[in-house]
Write a structure and sequence with these properties.
Layout (H helix, E strand, L loop, with lengths): L4 E3 L3 H20 L4 H24 L6 H4 L3 H12 L11 H29 L12 H36 L3 H7 L1 E3 L1
Antiparallel strand pairs: 1-2
Helix pairs in contact: 1-2, 2-5, 5-6
Amino acid sequence: MNQGEVKVWDPFVRIFHWLLVLSFTVAWLSGEELETLHAWAGYAVTGLVLLRLVWGFIGTPHARFSDFAHRPAEVRAYLGDVMRMRARRYLGHNPAGGAMILLMLVMLLATALTGMACYGVEQGAGPLAMLSGMSAASGEVFEELHEFFANLMLLLVLVHIAGVIVESLVHRESLVRAMFTGRKHA
């Protein structure tokens, strides 16, 4: 570790992040064309999110929800400070980043659950196979919801990437590098 750097992101958070990037990308790109690959990538996303939820309560200090879950007023104030280029620097997630993480975890679960419901209704397979007796219209509703949540998640990913770029420029440090090394400037 270089002098002047501090460990922020533990190995679990970094591995989780990059496996989630890979799993979501595979799931989003495989769609209906490669249904088995799509389903397994979705299961991987689900498992990763469930592990991250547990880690949010028992993990290292900056991985805990208590470190980065802020009130909406704090998030708005932080975003206003970013627009004025005077945002406070955080070692862990800033209030906007923390809100984005929470929103993405919820969106990933919504995407996964509607995908499993769709798979259960239409294929009689997966953890929600017991839904196979539902009408075809129900399957279509789950499919539409699944596509909506997946596309909304993609939009959140793009906003997340933009936020990482802005934050990196405002504070003159590479947040992408930090997600590989686990270290940030002290």
